Structure prediction request, 982 residues.
Amino acid sequence: MSEHPLDPIFHPRAIALVGVPEKLDGRGADFFLALLDQGFHERKPIYVVHPRATEIRGIKAYPTLLDCPEPVDHVISLIPRHLVATLVDQCVEKRVRSLHFFTAGFSESGEEGMAAAERELAERARAGGVRVLGPNCMGLYVPDERISFSLGFPTDAGNVMMISQSGANAGGVVSGLAPRGLRFSKVVSFGNGSDIDAAELFEYASSDADTEVVLAYIEGVPDGRRFLEAVRRCARVKPTIILKGGFTAAGARAASSHTGSLAGSAAVFEAMCRQTGALRVDSLDEMFDMAVAVTTRMRAVRGRRAVLTGGGGGFSVLSADVIARADLEMPDLPIETQERLREWVPVAGNSVHNPIDAGFVGDRHGVADEVTAVAAEAPGYDFVIASRGDFRMSPPRPGDEPSDPQTRAERDERRRERALESARTLAAIQERTGRPVIAVRREYAPEPAGDFHVEAQRLGLAAFFSVPAAAHTVDTLLRWRERREDLPEIL
Amino acid sequence: MSEHPLDPIFHPRAIALVGVPEKLDGRGADFFLALLDQGFHERKPIYVVHPRATEIRGIKAYPTLLDCPEPVDHVISLIPRHLVATLVDQCVEKRVRSLHFFTAGFSESGEEGMAAAERELAERARAGGVRVLGPNCMGLYVPDERISFSLGFPTDAGNVMMISQSGANAGGVVSGLAPRGLRFSKVVSFGNGSDIDAAELFEYASSDADTEVVLAYIEGVPDGRRFLEAVRRCARVKPTIILKGGFTAAGARAASSHTGSLAGSAAVFEAMCRQTGALRVDSLDEMFDMAVAVTTRMRAVRGRRAVLTGGGGGFSVLSADVIARADLEMPDLPIETQERLREWVPVAGNSVHNPIDAGFVGDRHGVADEVTAVAAEAPGYDFVIASRGDFRMSPPRPGDEPSDPQTRAERDERRRERALESARTLAAIQERTGRPVIAVRREYAPEPAGDFHVEAQRLGLAAFFSVPAAAHTVDTLLRWRERREDLPEIL
Prediction:
């Protein structure tokens, strides 16, 4: 695969930050601290441009960009708008490859003069061989290169690329998917998109060997034709999931204030997605759930017949209603399976029909797992939904917390171990039976749900926070695949 | 108000448990431990009936119920089905007021013989002056009397009564609402309802002076006419919120296995709710949100015009879309308000339009609160949605946790303090301006959301976990009130 023109931007040989506050207060400092946090400076040079400082946090500072050693491939601008014209000229002179403007106050201000200034800026840079990211954006998170725009992002890389017109939503996707075990190849917050825009990033994603799943948050599409072609190319070969903001009048006003975008109609955008084979989702949560679905064995679900294992009669009733409302089927279990379940599940207070309710099994250890194993072997089902810890009688109470910190830490560690073990057992059932298992574990379960979800993802086991989310995601996945029937089979 | 016939059941002078396992293993032990946990035995006697033991966990045991000292008002049966006939006779002889059967395996087994046995049991008890709760249920949680069916339930009482055909959902409601600061007058899990049933409990709730809000989970309605009249009486004078399980074929099968219920049609049930002024909800989460709405100043919301304060451009765009989709309006702010906001909110990266985005304010402390205060004073809005901590760039990372338990405990305490302070500030804005403020704080915010929600509730401030939940709840509340226009104004 030949190199895409955007590729060098993701692999700078050195980064310069212009406008890092000397005392490291204020928002701009985070970009600098995030690079140190990731350890970029341990591999390649970081330069700080500051009119007076000689060093900041141990990194040498230079009075202007032109004073930095060669080469500087990527520049992050944290300076106010009225200073950027000079910086653009210096970037051209320095043969910088890409210039990221965190700097805001351009077309999104709603003033025509500022929109013109933005266009001029981008044209001047581009004419001088410098690509522009933004203005008004968070820029790059490339874990393989130790580049990040935020503290605390994972330092290990994965196969998901996020293309985002919003920095908050770019960060939200990392925050939402990291605790579920997904990792990223590239995250790009491109803001007003004066030069590098969504279309070019979709083109890039389609051919990027490190990217297997593409997520996007879009507010406005200035060039519909180009955008459509880029999404089409991408969605043809990789699962491509798009969240569009600004469909309502209030949302469109917010989008205009945010990135200067004209938002357009929901129907047109939906039709575009259907035509290209991409999936449009309605919320970040739905995007997270779909990302889990396409990166686990849940991809292998081919039909609508569900068997649910869990505990709690009322929970079973409501879950069955929710599963049926998602257009899934819950045929009852064959007699032989019911008989096998009877070895584990007492009659009183339980049910060996589908949904299986094994809430009252006394102190017998591991019954939930045995029940799930039997259910996974029952003929006639396309997948198992295995609920763990969804049925919980007692809320945590302040008095329940051990007051001794050491005791609490040990208890937390034991809980963590149990959570990991539970995920491993379900993954093993999935492996052994070849039937997709979809795990459900609420965030408020006593064991930390995060560890369960991360371990599940590592083992190819899809994990969700609720039965409604799991059921809705299966339905969405199946409908998406049906719509893609003339396209390559990637789901 | 004269005493309701069910009233004595909630105020027993002594409780006897029959069938507590001597080693306190198995599910039945929890009923015993829950009473000790609540401290019932410190106020009134608990007796344990056991064929061999002389005491269990310091509580004296008696060989039969007839050997226990007088009076025994309430009996909890934890024994297998084939032993209960004798127990019923003993209860009659002992002049017990109420007999709660955790014992299961009756009509819900699907066997006609067992259904007949259940009817006979209930008739025999009733003829002897003993009221029956169940079989196949968790029974009573009455915090004022220190009665509970589960460990860890709050020991303080509140104004919410829960009527539940499912023990899991009864426990789920306590677990779901306790961390949001709501407390209970009575929770009754009545299972198969062979004697005391939903209709009688609604009648009771309508006249119970300790109950101001009534929640219910129902699977089957054997006597529609009586049920309708009881719900009508209750919903007329108190907010009454009902979740019905078993609408789908799979859900109905689960309901039949669970409580022997015939589930009936969704349309009929919905019509019934509309006719009586009760509100039907679709999930426990929706029930929790509505319970918060009717127990805070959110009750005072009278129109659809929302102003949102928060941070993060993409978050604002998506939130505005979600609010508009819930049929709420987001008129833009008057120029004067925008100018007042400008004192706090820099142009770059933010917006002083509605939705207000104040995500990039540097290190200035308390800007979010000042912005919310200004928004609450703006003319032309019915309520404010104030998002706190919804915009979060970085996920928690294992390395971020202080490894020293003491340091971690101190950090947690500081976070807790900040959460409480934030809730108090928003409640004070609501008080001062008289405009309902609806707080949104995600569970994954760095500070424990639970503390924020509990403190908010204490101060009459509605708090939700997401903007979609807040917006949906406002819409539901307004529609509910419209439908109740000919009924007393209780919302």
Remarks:
- Confidence is low (pLDDT under 50) at residues 390-395 of chain A.
- The longest helix of chain A spans residues 405-433.
- Chain A touches chain B through 93 residues (CB under 8 Å).
- The radius of gyration of chain A is 26 Å.
